[in-house]
## 1
Amino acid sequence: MAACVAFAGWGAPSPALERTVVTQGAASDYEPGAFYRRELPYLLAVLAALPEPPSLIVIDGFVWLGDEQPGLGAHLHAALAGQSAVVGVAKRPYRGALAVPVLRGHSEQPLYIGAIGLPLDEAVAGVRAMHGPHRIPTLLKRVDRLSRDTPSPAPA
């Protein structure tokens, strides 16, 4: 299952559009440092279901895992031929990742922000400005809930 929410601006309290795409099993098993192999097909499937390509995409994951080591966000940016900026919002640290820790709400646990196609300081400011009083912005909670609540396809 893949889900996305579109929003009109960083501070939007609710989605302008929601999409889910039912997909078959994972493209590959999880491999540390190669999360993109499993997740990229889902992202591309749900983005293809949108009426038009977004200019900015916020993902749950890292853009860069290290110097010249692309993460999910950089792989997505490349797969889209650089047509959409990508902001990565990761919930846990990854050793060596190029990401800025950002505190939101009253949490003492940061989110880790990275970007490609958009200056990093703009990405950090955008995530800070996202709606919601807690560590995880409202719309990121919404897309997570959408992906979990939509029924998976029955086995063939």
## 2
Amino acid sequence: MKSLLLALAFAVAGSFAAYGQDVSKAPPPAPYKAVSSLVKLPDFLPGLGQLYVDPTTLPAGPFLAYDHDGALVATVFMIPVKDLNPDKTFDNLAAPGGNVDHVDIYYNAGHPGVEEPHAHIVLWHVPVADEARVAK
């Protein structure tokens, strides 16, 4: 499963042109909406930042993650654990966030908006040291 997740993470690393619009600053253009306007979550989530998503792409995303200054720091996918199996593929996932510096993958038991257990696949557009911009 680890190799599947890594392959998925690198397959989605695209450019701003993937959606044909600049999403480098919050708020991103339509069809993105603040996640906090769609489900009961705070505007800023420590560790991820302020999240925006095109509601038609739920539950997987991509979610765009911004720091306190409105700069894009990561693109996040939330892939249900039940879908991480040999019978399911995630082809042609667009990642509008640009170049990827590094990738984090971790389990989440569920939260408002994506209630079922899922994997967070975080495509960081900033160096590891700059992750602190969304730490709190």
## 3
Amino acid sequence: MTSTEKCVYELMEKSWHFILVRDGDGWFVKVKELRGCMSDGKTWEEAYRMIHDAMRGWLTVSIEHDLPIPEPEED
């Protein structure tokens, strides 16, 4: 596992807030704290899986380009 992969894994374990919205025949989902990190799916389960893929990509790019990554908001 590379250092970037390890960092992404650790960040994925944090308590992020997901916003899930019914959108026509499917579902739209985004991570509240990660600007521009969004996805969709035909079912809410698919949307939930897809947002995790989007998060891994978002976090990887941010780490590789030394961009700031916000902390999850507290409940």
